[in-house]
Amino acid sequence: MAEFWVNMGPQHPMTHGLWNMRVKIDGETITDAEPEIGYLHRGYEKIMEVREFQKNVVLTDRLCYVSSITWSHAYCLACEKIMDVEVPPRGQWIRVIALELQRVASHLMWLAAYGPDLGLLTGLLWALRERELFLDLLQLLTGARMNQNFPRIGGVRNDLPPDFDKYCFKVIKHFREKMSEYERLFQDSKIFLMRTQGVGKISLADAIDWGVTGPNLRACGMDVDLRRLEPYEAYPEVEFEPQVWRGGDGGDSYARFMCRFNELRESCSIIEQAVKKAPSGAYRAKAPRRAEGEGFARTEDSRGEALFYVIGDGDDRPYRVKIRSPVFCTMAATPIMLRGNKMADVVSILGSVDVCVGEMDK
Amino acid sequence: MGSPEEDLMRRLRERFPSAFTELRVVRPSVVKAVIDRKDLVEVCTHLKKELGFEHLSCVTAVDWKDHFESVYHLYSYKLGTTAQINAVIPYDDPKIASLVPLWNAARYHEREAWDLMGVTYEGNPKLERILLPKDFRYHPLRKDFPQETERQYITRRKLKTGGR
């Protein structure tokens, strides 16, 4: 049968944003694929060059609206490396709390999107219902549900609100109960397993070669978590287990699903530890306005390795900012995952890699 | 045997005695090396094949007004060390060899760097516009590309001093 190209996007329910997945199909089988991105390009790296270091925090929030704090935190971390600013211990712990709350909210958004991708509409409603609780916690902490503008160069914007730990424990206790319901909904569903297991495979060697990071790489069975490998903030003092696919022969949609899903639990336990351990004291150090030199910071974003490479030339604005988006690199590897699969599985595979177009297109 | 960073620097110096114009430990577990563009492929091949830097994290092109730099962040999952390679490129001839034969991850990074900065990565199989429209004629991250927000956006300092 003659092969031909099909455009999945830019307007397609699967795309979760604005991008185009071109797939070449032979009957029902995918023989080649090519992502077409850039629809959401806003020229971040250029805009950041004319704004002051502190003001860029607002911009980096909007890189990915689902996980703003992780992105503005990565930017602040890179600036602190140039400016030689040490964040006070309480500031570090508050950052850990905010980062993990954001990670849970981001993963729940992914779960909510992944359910309907596979026709499981209940997943959307349930995951968004619980995400609301975590957004409430974020609102309590930062004052906003999305685009929080919370981290600052040298610390965080404000201290923990009173009784924040009690609210956290309450929400997490409730969420743990709901997690077992999710497990019954997703992992016990035969249809869900059929749609995900053995679909969208990528080998470990390929994943490293193409620069796949984060949960997508851990799903291949490699224990890489930058919170462990290159600990930042207060992560060395936190006990947690990076979620790696241990079932052997991973790298498929199901392994990616399991790694993300189990991370929800880990993040909850990190939040519990952090609100207990946060010491008293200052939460913000004074940062200089001007900076000279270069610095980069790598953090474990909810989607993989986020890297900010910032160069300052002694002015109060960065000379050059480079944003390394994990989704951008994973997107380069999606043709490998797609090849050989059926047309109907495109949605299942691309849903499992957790695409966020905002950070991909910058 | 010293620390992993010193060990890495020693092995690099032994293998390429004259390639580095700068080689130092910037921070714990970060080694920075400045090289000329002609040594890039050899140094990176050595780093990947012999020293185990298997992850190409990022490719950045920087416009320094008198020259370009292509910055590579390589990471070794085993050592936990980052190697930052700055390859210097002359301004009037913005070309450098592609690293696609070593890492497939370089494909998209180099496409993006060419798209936004106009540094040609020779050997990249598909050096096309990736983020900008296909008919776009400029490379906007270059410093001579005007920044439109300069006109819209007035800082307090600008009001005081009347611009820089």
Can you offer a commentary on this structure?
The complex is a heterodimer of chains A (362) and B (164). By secondary structure, chain A is α+β, with helices and mostly antiparallel strands. Chain A folds into 2 domains: 1-41, no CATH class; 43-353, Cytochrome-c3 Hydrogenase, chain B (Orthogonal Bundle), CATH 1.10.645. Helices cover 47% and strands 14% of the residues of chain A. Chain A is built from 14 helices and 8 strands. Chain A has helices at 44-47, 56-61, 68-83, 89-117, 121-142, 164-186, 190-196, 204-209, 215-218, 226-229, 253-277, 326-338, 346-352, 357-361; strands at residues 4-8, 20-26, 29-36, 151-152, 155-156, 292-301, 304-313, 318-324. In chain A, a hairpin with a 2-residue loop joins strand 2 and strand 3. Chain A is globular and about 65 Å long. Chain A starts with a strand and ends with a helix. By secondary structure, chain B is α/β, with parallel strands linked by helices. Chain B has a single domain (4-161), classed as Beta Polymerase, domain 2. Chain B is 27% helix and 30% strand. Chain B has 5 helices and 7 strands, in the order αββαββββαβαα. In chain B, the strands form 2 sheets. A 5-stranded mixed β-sheet of chain B has the order 1-2-5-4-3. In chain B, strands 6-7 form a two-stranded parallel ribbon. The model of chain B has no long low-confidence stretch (mean pLDDT 84). The interface between A and B is large, with 38 and 39 residues.
Write the layout of secondary structure elements.
The complex is a heterodimer of chains A (362) and B (164).
Chain A: E1 4-8, E2 20-26, E3 29-36, H1 44-47, H2 56-61, H3 68-83, H4 89-117, H5 121-142, E4 151-152, E5 155-156, H6 164-186, H7 190-196, H8 204-209, H9 215-218, H10 226-229, H11 253-277, E6 292-301, E7 304-313, E8 318-324, H12 326-338, H13 346-352, H14 357-361
Antiparallel strand pairs in A: 1-2, 2-3, 4-5, 6-7, 7-8
Helix pairs in contact in A: 3-4, 4-5, 4-11, 4-13, 5-6, 6-11
Chain B: H1 4-15, E1 20-27, E2 30-36, H2 40-49, E3 55-63, E4 67-76, E5 81-90, E6 95-97, H3 106-117, E7 120-122, H4 149-152, H5 156-161
Parallel strand pairs in B: 2-5, 6-7
Antiparallel strand pairs in B: 1-2, 3-4, 4-5
